[in-house]
Amino acid sequence: MKYEEMVPAHIRALASYVPGKPLRQAEEETGIKCTKMASNENPFGPSPRAIEAMEHALREVHLYPENGAPELAKKIAENEGVTPDHVLVTGGSTPCLDMIGRTLLSPGLNAVTSERTFIVYPIVTRGAGATLKMVPTKDDGFDLDGILTAIDERTRVAFLANPNNPTGTMFDAKAMDRFLERVPDSVVTVLDEAYYDFAKHLAQQRGVEYSNSVRYVKEGRKVIVLRTFSKTHGLAGVRVGFGIGDPELMSYLARVRTAFQTTSIGEAAAMAALHDDEHLKRTVENNAAGAEVLLKGLREMGLHVVPTWANFVFFEVEDDAPGIARALERAGVIVRPLGGWGIPKGLRVTIGNPEQNQNFLRALQKVLAKEPVR
Ligand SMILES: Cc1ncc(COP(=O)(O)O)c(C=O)c1O
After folding, report:
1. Ligand 1 atom closest to Cα of 310?
2. Which residue is closest in CA terms to ligand 1's atom 2?
């Protein structure tokens, strides 16, 4: 039998996830030192405390980790004011999305989200054999009323990224309150807060109320909050994330989690990073300052730029974005062209440290003016 006949049609139809270009590959291709501003990673690296904890944990990697990282789940629960059975620790938040898909979705059911949002939602929905309804964006972000309208009796999941990746938009706590008042009881709302600390800081600065997410869980609403250690904590490479939701629902999710999904190194790093307020503060403050610099610089180039609530900036160019991304790479800056999101003129750049931000702006200016970059 041919593999084509063995693999179900809904799996064959999947497009695989295309990540930002790896640093090493870009450096090999260009022959110069590059800065990766393509995957929303922390420009300061991991917390020094996390590095120390990982070095320590290295000595015990001959032992299996504790399944489900219970110590970390307990610590997160304490911080969030819930009991540990509300917390499910996973290998980054992406596997948690996959587990949500496999637990709640199946052929004949659907999930609803926005267009121009996190590229993993279609993969986990279609991978479960369900269909994904994507509602057009409003002002470059989630149209929550449109999502409510798209929900039908076969909808089981609404994926809401707040802030949204790749456009960087945010909806505030009031908008979410209104959404939850109207969403049917047959739908689980997944509130994906991968950029939580960045958004919280920016919202405080801008006098906006960001999110009541965990409060919804405490109130017994059908909400799963997703967070990750990949962004502000700088631990993308060791894969730790978590979901917070109703204990019964989380226990169903846990049944589809592969055993030993998180590593002892990841758990040690995350535990240490949770205690490193200094690294977190430095990260979010640098990000807020960098956001202003990039937004201003891009606007001055006459580009369509969307104000960001995360650690990246979305902008659109008039020419072909992949060509501009390639030219930027020749100048040593890797950004993310957004063709895969159906945005042919869109680019996303991660906010770096002050020097990286200036290098990027200088390089883009040259590229747009069609001047040689080096
Ligand atoms: C909206 C959103 N959710 C989830 C993730 C997943 O992050 P991780 O799997 O590294 O926790 C990302 C990462 O880019 C994201 O942008």
Report:
1. 16
2. 194
Closest CA relative to residue 241, chosen from 192, 279, 281, 313: 192
What digits encode the pLDDT tens for the residues 244-273?
A: 999 999 999 999 988 899 999 999 999 999
Task: For residue 128, give the CATH number of its domain.
Answer: 3.40.640.10
Q: 148 and 173, same structural domain?
A: yes
Query: What is residue 161's DSSP assignment?
Result: E
Cα(194) to centroid(ligand 1), Å: 5
Does one domain contain both 244 and 289?
no
**Digit-coded pLDDT (tens) for 172-207:** 999 999 999 999 999 999 999 999 999 999 999 999
> Quick one: pLDDT at residue 302?
95
Give the range of the structural domain holding residue 24, as residue numbers without chain letter: 3-33+278-368
- How many separate domains does the chain show? 2
Q: Which is the closest atom of ligand 1 to the Cα of 230?
A: 10
Q: Using CB atoms within 10 A of its CB, is residue 192 exposed (0-12), middle (13-18) or buried (19+)?
A: buried
CB atoms within 10 A of CB 139: 9
Last-in-domain residue among 256, 276, 296? 276
| DSSP symbol at 84 | G
Residue 48 scores a pLDDT above 80: yes
pLDDT at 368: 94
- Looking at the CA of residue 40, tell me the nearest atom of ligand 1: 14
